């Protein structure tokens, strides 16, 4: 049997070709499901908004209007039993309207497409509208679950994002439009708390944890990333090189190499990444694709060290740090969930 036939799937096409078809089909379904979910959320929130407006305009509050809202809840649930029209939820709808009816349209549009549970979390946990808009946009871009949103709020991600200093050379190594988009896509800090790591860990173990939860990691990276592989092998001049994690970003039309480092940033990491990007551009980059981009993900970085290390580098490289340990509350939840799962088993 020929080697070509060995590589054929049961459908008599090359396995690589079938994998590409499957990957594109899954992406189309995910995009469609996200679109449908946004439409459902928008419709539901529109109803909640109008009910909240009604209670607000009728000047009902939890003292004077408690009896009215209780009866209203009973009558509405008789007609629409599956809409979550409890008295508590009706009051939350009024709070929702009161909070945003005088806000700018951009903020109202952002919260309009969030799941109701996310909106309740923002109502209860976040005070400033600027922060609400940040968390709403991050949720939409990254597909955060309610738990991931809560974790981001507890980690004070909004304030962290305001303090971030640009630690990449995209403006000098990419065309202006491409550089602007790359600066939007890549962050200076990533939260890897979803890995549930509670003690020091080796780089290989960190990589393995990320591979196990690669879909969650892609959500943290942001929209548009497709995972290609880990320890991705490159061969040139009879030598082998291995990229920790390799992705492709659809919007940037570029390969994205990520190197994981447990400790602080070191200048020599840039030289190694520069070599990997040269090899990727030479060996892997498609004819219509943009230059490959490198991200060095480390436990800590000093922006001055990064700036001098990137000064004369002609490949697009960014340096980001990660938050690895979960907050105390999240650790407690993690342990309780694991105990619960163990008891169920």
What does this structure look like?
Helices cover 57% and strands 15% of the residues. With 345 residues, the protein is an alpha/beta fold. It has two domains: 18-102, no CATH class; 164-329, 3-Layer(aba) Sandwich (Trna Endonuclease, Chain: A, domain 1), CATH 3.40.1350. Helix 2 packs across helix 4, helix 6 runs parallel beside helix 8 and helix 12 packs across helix 13. The two termini are 46 Å apart. The model is unreliable at 1-6 (pLDDT under 50).
Number of strands: 6
> How much helical structure, as a percent, in the residues?
55-70%
- Cα(first) to Cα(last) distance is 46 Å
What structural class do the secondary elements suggest?
alpha/beta
- Low-confidence runs (pLDDT<50, min 5 residues)? 1-6
- CATH names the topology of the largest domain as Trna Endonuclease, Chain: A, domain 1
Tell me the name of the CATH class of the largest domain: Alpha Beta
Q: Determine the strand fraction and express it as a percent band.
A: 15-25%
Strand order of the largest sheet: 1-6-5-4-3-2
Tally the structural domains: 2
Radius of gyration: 24 Å
* Elements, N to C (H/E): HHHHHHHHHHHEHHEEEHEHEH
Q: What is the name of the CATH architecture of the largest domain?
A: 3-Layer(aba) Sandwich
| Net shape | elongated
* Major sheet size, sense and barrel closure: 6 strands, mixed
Number of helices: 16
Average of the residue pLDDT scores: 80
